[in-house]
Amino acid sequence: MPENLPARIDRAALERIIQRAAELQTGEREIGDSLTPDEVLNLGKDVGIPARYLQQAILEEQTRSPVAQARGALDRLIGSSEVGAQRVVRGDGQAVQQRLAEWMEENELLAVQRQLPGRVTWEPLRGFHAALRRSAAALGGGKQPFMLARASQVAVTVSPLEPGYCHVGLTASLRQARGSVLGGVLGLGAAGVAVTAILALMSPFWWVALAPLPLFLGLATGVARRYPPIAERVQLGLERALDHLERGEIKPTHALAPRAAGVISLIADEVRKALRA
Known about the structure:
The protein has helices spanning 11-27, 37-47, 51-62, 73-77, 93-107, 127-138, 175-202, 206-210, 213-224, 227-247, 262-276, and strands spanning 82-90, 110-116, 119-124, 153-160, 165-173. It is an alpha+beta fold.
């Protein structure tokens, strides 16, 4: 072994090492422009990657959707009103869908809007239940932050692939969040035009009338920049849910814990969490 290597290798260095080792390994073999799935599996054996991980990665690549492009002026100016995430996970379709529903109910402020085989939609949890969950989180009872609170709707589509694998696609609508940001931008723009018009009538100097425009333009730009962090947070929330499906154990339906019934049970659970914290 080289003597100048550190005692421990961090994650970033490990990824670079593995990537470079794979390039060197494949460089020794005659590989054309494309490979069959069986050839990829055989190549994985050479580099010590288990076949089940390669199979999952191949399915994920086959079902990957193209990256959404900005479709209009608002998408290019502020950002898209919809974010999504997708992944191939191991497990039965019904069990995966049930597990994801349990995750959304326990870790996000969402309530089931509609549930069909292979597709579930959620809407924001409102009223007493939402206030109770927020209070428990503020007191320390919440294990993780609510990442999808700004989404007006979250939808999942679970599509069975090969036996034991499912493609899970999550989308979140941010039309209301983007609309509120856009309203602030338009309001500042209208105010800037109004102030400019008033100054143009009051002053004979054109530069006096145009002086406030940079200020309002800067304020509008600052308001517009509030939307990308919202979209990034919701995107991270979707990825977090998929991480749970990928790394967490997918329990069969009969092994799932029974759901608490009634408001009293919900209050008792949240009080226990707060006291335990």
